[in-house]
Write a structure and sequence with these properties.
The structure is a single chain. By secondary structure, the chain is an all-alpha fold. The chain folds into two domains: 40 residues, no CATH class; 77 residues. The chain is 57% helix and 0% strand. The chain has six helices and no strands. α1 runs antiparallel to α2 and α4 crosses α6. It is globular, with a radius of gyration of 14 Å. The relative contact order is 0.16.
């Protein structure tokens, strides 16, 4: 993991430091250094990203529902979703490609760990 990737990970886990301005600065540094904005080794877990924003699991669900509705989709009921979210956050199962896409959009394009990966 590069120093920039480690810095991104640290920023994502700190709600005070993890602002859009700081992320934009990191993107600019990445561009100047000729590296991808977020390297494959700098994957973030759903829980890290959620907690960094001070969101509860229900907050995350509601935000994802709004995104899905904008796409003409409907997420499962809260109890079903919560069971899956707990599994993702505990690393029991990986995040499916559909939810990875939604979560990446929700978290401003920070990649979410792929299926089978535990961050």
């Amino acid at each position: 993991m590069t120093a920039l990737a480690a810095l991104r990970l640290a920023v994502a886990s700190d709600p005070v430091v993890g602002s859009p301005a700081v992320n934009a600065l990191l993107d600019a540094l990445s561009a100047m250094l000729g590296t991808a904005p977020v390297e494959d080794s700098a994957r973030f877990s759903v829980k890290q990203l959620r907690v960094a924003r001070g969101w509860s699991q229900l907050d995350l669900f509601r935000r994802l529902c709004r995104l899905a509705e904008a796409d003409g989709e409907r997420l499962p009921e809260w109890t079903t979703f919560k069971r899956n979210l707990c599994r993702w956050e505990n690393g029991t199962v990986g995040v499916s490609p559909y939810y990875r896409h939604l979560l990446s959009r929700l978290f401003d394009a920070h990649p979410v760990a792929p299926v089978g990966a535990v961050a």
